[in-house]
Amino acid sequence: VVEDDPAVGAALVDGLARSGFEPDLVISGAGVDAALPGVEVVLLDLGLPGEDGLEVCRRIRARSSVPIIVVTARGEEVDRVLGLELGADDYVVKPFGLRELVARIRAVVRRTQGGVAERPQVLGGLVIDRRAHRVRLDDEDLALTPKEFDLLALLAEDPGAAYSRRDILEAVWDAHWYGPTKTVDVHVAGLRRKLGDPGWIETVRAVGYRLAVPG
Ligand code: CA
Question: What is the pTM of this model?
Answer without folding.
Answer: 0.59
